[in-house]
């Protein structure tokens, strides 16, 4: 698992958008969000008919800490 591409910026609490490469499969649309308890990763999502957002990728709880650390480390590089 590695970061394929990351776009850094300031979009409110969103600090970066990134794509994840898992064994050659690219999953687009992850977000790195600056929350009240620090940075966390938001899953790709789409807006439904009711105006709410539904996740298109479910991140297993076992992988979340590793993904968060990977994204945060990549974000802090060359900042």
What is the CATH superfamily?
Answer: Stage V sporulation protein G
Number of helices: 1
Oligomer: single chain
* Biggest β-sheet: strands ordered side by side in the sheet: 1-2-3-4
CATH topology name: Arylsulfatase, C-terminal domain
How many structural domains are formed by the residues? Answer: 1
Percent helix range: 10-25%
CATH architecture: 2-Layer Sandwich
Class from secondary-structure proportions: alpha+beta
Short description:
This protein is of the alpha+beta class. The chain is 16% helix and 52% strand.
What features would you describe in this structure?
The structure is a single chain. This protein has 79 residues and is an alpha+beta fold. It has one domain: 2-Layer Sandwich (Arylsulfatase, C-terminal domain). Helix content is 16%, strand content 52%. The chain has one helix at 64-76, and strands spanning 2-11, 14-22, 25-35, 38-42, 45-47, 53-55. A 4-stranded antiparallel sheet has the order 1-2-3-4. Strands 5-6 form a two-stranded antiparallel ribbon. Strand 5 and strand 6 (53-55) form a beta hairpin. The longest helix has 13 residues, at 64-76. It is globular, with a radius of gyration of 13 Å. The two termini are 22 Å apart. 9% of the residues are buried. The mean pLDDT is 94.
